[in-house]
Amino acid sequence: MPVKILMVCLGNICRSPLAEGILASKLPKDKFKVDSAGTGSWHVGRQPDERSIITAKKNNIDISSQKGRQFAIRDFDTFDYIYVMDNSNYNDVVFLAKTPEHRNKVQLILNELFPGENVDVPDPYYGLANGFDKVYKMLDQACDVIAHKLIEKHA
Ligand code: 4NP
Prior knowledge:
The protein has 155 residues and is an alpha/beta fold. Helix content is 42%, strand content 14%. Bound molecules: 4-nitrophenyl phosphate.
């Protein structure tokens, strides 16, 4: 059974699709499965934001076939690790957790780089285009740490 990792943001069109693509690119496909979801439902069924698709493509990662979906309570059982992009996502997801085990699966992704600091990945949706490059860089660094830990533990 592969180890399953879920990336979560608000819309599932900007940050978490990038995080999914980046982490998947760093892990062996036979042992790990990476997915993403949004806490909101506005973009269900849609492709990631074009700016995220372009930013990923510049880094040789194709996220264009991803489809937006909403986080669901069953995801707590399906996934082994749930990484959220910001404190608001953290509160929204943890609110739905019914057990301490489920709650403990939820981590702020940048705590992998800055332990205990609870730093947000900023939402680039309404910002400047270079916001996507900044987000990419943060997620790439965090996913390096995550991939090393996961491979050490499970591969
Ligand atoms: P994301 O960005 O959470 O990184 O996918 C957003 C995209 C869309 C919206 C909010 C955040 N929205 O409100 O439509």
